[in-house]
Write a structure and sequence with these properties.
With 357 residues, the chain is of the alpha/beta class. Helix content is 48%, strand content 15%. The protein contains 15 helices and 9 strands. The longest helix is centred in the last third of the chain and has 22 residues. The chain is globular.
Length: 357
C-alpha cells in the first residue's frame, strides 16, 4: 500500500486535520460566498474610488494578489497589493484599503491600516478577530467582514478570498460573473472528490504529484496574470505544509534571467523538480516559451512536471490550479511523515519580534 493510502497513518500524522480542511475547500468557498452576501458594506458603498489597495501578509495576503490579477483586465481603478508595513505615497483618501488578516493581529497589516486611517481612506476589514476587529469600531468609513475562527491562515483561503472577491463585486469595483463563479465552485467540488484521501493513489492526481516531487526541491513556474500569484501560492503552501524549500518564477520574465541560471551547478539542480503550469487556451507565445525553455534546461533538472490548467473561465482556472497545489502540499508533508499544521519557526520569529514591543 502506498503511504498516502494508509488512512490510519494519515490520521496519526495529521492530528489537527489540515488534510480535512483541504478536503472541505468546496464547502469553505460556499460559506465564504454566504458571508459576502450577508456583509454590511454600507459604510463604504456608494463612493467613487480612484484605486484599490490590498494589504495583508502570507496566507491572509495571497487573496489580494489573486483578486488583483483576476480583475486587472477589467477593473476601472488602480489595483495594488502591499506586502509590508507601509502604504505607497500615491495611496490617498480616495482609495479603498482592503485589509486582510485572519488572526487580526498581523503587525504589518495593522501598520498599513493606521496609515490609511491617518489619511482618511475608507477601509474594508476581513478578519476573524484580534486588533483589526477592534479597530473597526474606532474608525469611520470602515466595513467589517467577520470570519469563522480556528483555522491556520493558509487553511482559511476560501473564507479570506471569497468574501473579498464578491464584496468588491457588490461595490462595483471589479467584475464578478456568476457563471464563472459557479464553474469554479463546480470544478473544486469535482476535484475534491478526486483528491479525497479515500481515493487511491492510482486515481488521485494530488497524491501522484506529491510522490513525483518526492525529495526533490520544487521550483514552480507560473505565467503573467493570475497564474503568477498561483505559482507563488504553491511555493508558500509547500513551504508551510511540507516544511520544504520551494521557489517560483513566471513567464515571460524568467526568460530574461533565470533561464540562463540553469547553466551551472547541474550536480545540485539534478535534485530539483520543475513544475510548469500549461494551458491549451493560453497565450500562444507563452506556450511557445514554455516548450522552448523546457528543452533548454530540462537536462539540468531531476524531473519536469507539467500541470494542466483546467477550466473555461479565468476564475475557474485560478481556483482549480490553486486547489491542486494546496492539497498536494499536504500530501507531500504526509508522504514524508511530517505534520502539515505547525509552523514553529514562524511562531518563534513572532515571539522574538514581540520582545521589541
Amino acid at each position: 500500500m502506498n503511504t498516502l493510502d494508509d488512512i490510519n497513518k494519515i490520521e496519526q500524522l495529521d492530528p489537527q486535520g489540515m488534510l480535512e480542511v483541504e478536503e472541505n475547500f468546496y464547502n469553505q468557498l460556499l460559506e465564504g460566498q454566504k458571508i459576502a452576501e450577508a456583509a454590511d458594506l454600507s459604510q463604504i458603498a456608494g463612493k467613487k474610488y480612484s484605486g484599490l489597495v490590498f494589504v495583508g501578509m502570507g496566507g491572509s495576503g495571497i487573496s489580494g494578489d489573486i483578486i488583483a490579477s483576476l480583475a486587472a483586465h477589467s477593473a476601472g481603478v488602480n489595483l495594488v497589493a502591499v506586502k509590508g508595513y507601509n502604504l505607497p505615497a500615491y495611496v490617498t483618501k480616495d482609495w479603498l484599503v482592503v485589509a486582510s488578516s485572519y488572526s487580526g493581529n498581523t503587525e504589518e497589516t495593522i501598520s498599513c491600516v493606521k496609515q490609511a486611517a491617518g489619511i482618511g481612506a475608507a477601509m474594508l476589514f476581513i478578519t476573524s478577530g484580534g486588533k483589526l476587529k477592534q479597530l473597526a469600531a474606532d474608525y469611520d468609513d470602515v466595513s467589517l467582514i467577520s470570519l469563522p475562527s480556528g483555522y491556520q491562515p493558509r487553511g482559511a483561503f476560501g473564507y479570506l478570498f471569497m468574501p473579498a472577491y464578491m464584496a468588491l463585486g457588490r461595490l462595483g469595483l471589479i467584475d464578478t460573473d456568476a457563471g464563472d463563479i459557479q464553474e469554479g465552485l463546480d470544478m473544486v467540488k469535482q476535484l475534491g472528490r478526486q483528491f479525497n484521501r479515500n481515493n487511491p493513489y492510482e486515481k488521485n492526481y494530488a497524491k501522484q504529484l506529491a510522490v513525483m516531487i518526492g525529495d526533490r526541491l520544487p521550483v514552480v513556474y507560473g505565467q503573467e496574470g493570475y497564474l503568477g500569484p498561483i505559482a507563488y501560492r504553491w511555493k508558500c503552501e509547500i513551504n508551510e505544509n511540507a516544511k520544504t524549500p520551494c521557489f517560483w518564477a513566471q513567464f515571460p520574465e524568467l526568460n530574461h534571467n533565470e533561464t540562463v541560471g540553469w547553466d551551472r551547478l547541474a550536480p545540485v539542480t539534478k535534485n530539483f523538480v520543475l513544475i510548469i503550469f500549461t494551458q491549451q487556451q493560453g497565450n500562444k507565445r507563452i506556450e511557445a516559451r514554455i516548450e522552448a525553455t523546457r528543452k533548454l534546461i530540462e537536462d539540468n533538472l531531476g524531473k519536469v512536471i507539467e500541470v494542466p490548467v483546467k477550466g473555461k473561465s479565468r476564475f475557474a482556472r485560478a481556483l482549480s490550479t490553486l486547489y491542486t497545489g494546496d492539497i498536494t502540499s499536504v500530501y507531500l508533508a504526509l508522504y514524508h511523515g511530517v505534520d502539515p499544521t505547525p509552523v514553529e519557526k514562524i511562531e518563534k520569529l513572532k515571539a522574538e519580534l514581540s520582545k521589541l514591543d
